[in-house]
Amino acid sequence: MEKIKVFMSTYHGDIETEVNDFLAENKIKLIDIKYNSTITTNSYNMVIEQYSALLIYVEVEE
Questions:
Q1: Closest alpha carbon to 28 in 58, 62, 7
Q2: Structural domain tally of the chain?
Q3: What superkingdom does the record give (predicted)?
Q4: CB of 44 within 8 A of CB of 56?
Q5: Per-residue model confidence as pLDDT tens digits over 5-54
């Protein structure tokens, strides 16, 4: 059965670390991965960054 895992962060490096740690710690067959990044400014002209990754995978049984 396919499963979904979502990661969200305000720093791109954190997303990479979280995804790589998840892949290393679990026995899965990765089906697909989608990355998304949004960068905008708020009413105070401060930059707001949001990164996300969606993994679709199947757990591997030994």
A1: 58
A2: 1
A3: Bacteria
A4: no
A5: 999 998 888 999 999 999 898 888 989 999 999 999 999 999 999 999 99
Say what the pLDDT of residue 61 is: 80
List residues bridging with 14 in a β-sheet: none
In single-letter form, the type of residue at position 25 comes to E
**C-alpha to C-alpha distance for 28 and 33, rounded to whole angstroms:** 13
Kind and range of the H or E run holding 36: strand 28-41
CB 1 within 8 A of CB 28: no
Domain that holds residue 10: 2-59
Give residue 44's pLDDT. 95
Q: What are phi and psi of 11, to 5 degrees?
A: -135, 130
